[in-house]
Amino acid sequence: PANWNYSRSYLFFYAIPFTHTGALASYPLGEFGSVTGGVVNGWDIVDDNNNGKSRLANLTLTPIEGVTLSSNLITGPERAANDHDDRTVLDLVGSWQATEKLALMANYDYGHESSLTQGTGATGFESANWQGLALYAKYDLTDTWSLAGRWEWFDDKDNVRTLLTSIGGGIPTDVNLYGYTLTSQWKLHEHVLERLEYRHDMSNQKVFARDEGFSSYQDTIAAELIYHF
Fold first, then answer.
1. Are the C-beta atoms of 104 and 111 separated by less than 8 Å?
2. The pLDDT value given to residue 117
3. What is the pTM of this model?
4. If you ran DSSP here, which 8-state letter would residue 169 be given?
5. Which of 66, 95, 126, 161 is 20 to 30 A off residue 87, Cα-Cα?
């Protein structure tokens, strides 16, 4: 329910990990924010797949009322039986409660990994880089109805995060993804939310699968019913 949209952004799916297993420690900085550090086994695994650990760091600041700035860093070796080729991601998030009804948010990610093969994510001789930006706005039209919009861009320069294929099974490089999303949310009850969403995705490559082949865009409509407690 905390997500403004029904669907997730490209950055959520491709730029950063979903889960960690490890330990974190946080230290509050009073009303100004907090600092966090930790060690984890890696990206989206429970048991480590190599002998190297990944390190996490976070700095969250609240410089003025209604504004929150957060910077997150994770770095460490993530490939099986490889302890020396690190994957590093810097994640920056800023949010601003501009008015009582309008909230704004921005998210930028930059990632780098050493010694990869383009289009596969396997060990190779090249370094890979990826980056993306997502901009959000949410407006409360009434006490029970709100609209949320998202614009996003993701540059998978070496096609190691999306691992997309195209016409004839080809592996494109320098994949750029763009998306526009509009979500309407209704509060039906204190614990019940309903959402209706339209999303338009685009790419500079024909990577969206269709019955007749591949396309450079796709449109989706989704509905969601949430019970939260």
1. no
2. 86
3. 0.93
4. G
5. 95
